[in-house]
């Protein structure tokens, strides 16, 4: 994956070099279950291309389209697997991101615990940013 400076677990998943079961795969994104879920259902949608964080996205049609597609995939999966449930979609911003490969958290509530809920609450410029808010920032 272009731009990856060290072994990236999500790049390995994108190259199919792990045993991770995929929930969705297309030319732009992959989706799979989070290995440490924080909610009733917790999926990650990642771009195939290595993009480190939300800070590497720009206000341009390609980035807006990618994030829109990531959100569409996440919504489709949760609507399929956890219908009629409350959802939360968003990204951790540096320095609070755990993996330096862009990934959308797709959560079907309830959260497993109050502590885990706090990790997915918008906290300003370094916290969790909801996908819809990021899309407004990226809209060309």
From TrEMBL:
Name of the protein in question: HIT domain-containing protein
Record key words, sorted: Hydrolase, Nucleotide-binding
Chain location of the short sequence motif Histidine triad motif per the record: 101-105
Active site, UniProt feature: 105
Alphabetized InterPro entries for the sequence: Histidine_triad_HIT (IPR001310), HIT-like (IPR011146), HIT-like_sf (IPR036265)
Pfam families: DcpS_C (PF11969)
Record domain HIT: where: 9-120
Domain of life: Eukaryota
């Amino acid at each position: 994956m272009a731009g990856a400076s060290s072994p990236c677990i999500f790049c390995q998943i994108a190259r199919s070099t792990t045993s991770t079961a995929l929930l969705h795969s297309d030319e732009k994104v992959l989706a799979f279950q989070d290995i440490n879920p924080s909610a009733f259902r917790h999926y990650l949608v990642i771009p195939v291309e290595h993009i480190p964080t939300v800070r590497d996205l720009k206000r341009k049609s390609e980035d807006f389209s990618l994030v829109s597609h990531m959100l569409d995939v996440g919504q489709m999966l949760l609507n399929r697997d956890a219908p009629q449930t409350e959802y939360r979609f968003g990204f951790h911003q540096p320095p609070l991101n755990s993996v330096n490969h862009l990934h959308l958290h797709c959560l079907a509530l309830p959260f497993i615990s109050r502590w885990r809920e706090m990790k997915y609450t918008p906290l300003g410029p370094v916290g969790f940013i909801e996908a819809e808010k990021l899309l407004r920032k990226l809209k060309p």
